[in-house]
Amino acid sequence: MKPILTAEKAVETIGDGASLMVAGFMGCGNAFTLIQALLAKGSKSLTLITSDTAFPQVGVGRLVTEGRVKKLITTHIGTNPNAGRMMNAGEIDVTLVPQGTFNERIRAKGAGLGGVLTPTGIGTAVEEGKQKLTIEGREYLLELPLGGDFAFIKAEVCDKYGNSFLPMATKTAAVSMAMAASRVIVEAERIVEPGEMDPEKVTIPGLFVSAIVQAVLPASNLQQK
């Protein structure tokens, strides 16, 4: 069985300077209850690894807006004007990664690979400072694995062993993040007994889960403050 914790207890060890992976896309699939608890705890200078910065007062967007993030590794920030303003003002260090490359780097970390080769970014600013290899006459960038100290995963259903079901777009990057982070906290809408979940619906095996938290903030309320 995995420990079932309050959100406050689950984020207790996420200190200043920690690296945090948050799954989801445009706020959909963000772990709102855990993010709220982390904001209340006051952790700062975080390295945030997430597919996007959502909106100013939605999910991961709140971590950026409230100045808790020192370094941001993401694929785009266009829907959160605060992220762009803070980047231009030098208040946050932003690394923009092509979306496919972002996912593959995380997958490589979880799979124990030394990196991935991709032609994406050749001839652009993306290639700056990176090793290039030529294979069969074609150039590739070596992109290094990307992992984190912690990962927040939002699940619709999770059993007490940590086996989790994530529907549709909420699973964006979640599986690879669950494999790439040192400690994985699943925030679940419903927590069920072992055997109650259809094994065919397990998106993330409990093997990768460190702790479970009952969701309090509803997934449908994207404007939680």
TL;DR of this structure?
The chain is α/β, with parallel strands linked by helices. It contains six helices and twelve strands. It has helices at 7-10, 32-41, 60-65, 81-88, 99-111, 174-180; strands at 4-5, 19-22, 46-50, 69-74, 93-96, 116-118, 132-135, 138-143, 148-159, 164-165, 181-192, 211-214.
What is the CATH topology classification name? Glutaconate Coenzyme A-transferase
Structural class: alpha/beta
Question: How do the SSEs run, as a string of H and E?
Answer: EHEHEHEHEHEEEEEHEE
- Outline the biggest β-sheet: 9 strands, mixed
Count of folded domains: 1
* Residue share in β-strands: 25-35%
CATH 2nd-level architecture: 3-Layer(aba) Sandwich
Give structural notes.
The protein has 225 residues and is an alpha/beta fold. The protein has a single domain, classed as Glutaconate Coenzyme A-transferase. It has 6 helices and 12 strands. Strands 1, 2, 3, 4, 5, 9, 10, 11 and 12 form a 9-stranded mixed β-sheet that branches. A 3-stranded antiparallel β-sheet has the order 6-8-7. The protein is globular and about 55 Å long. Mean pLDDT is 94; it is low at 221-225.
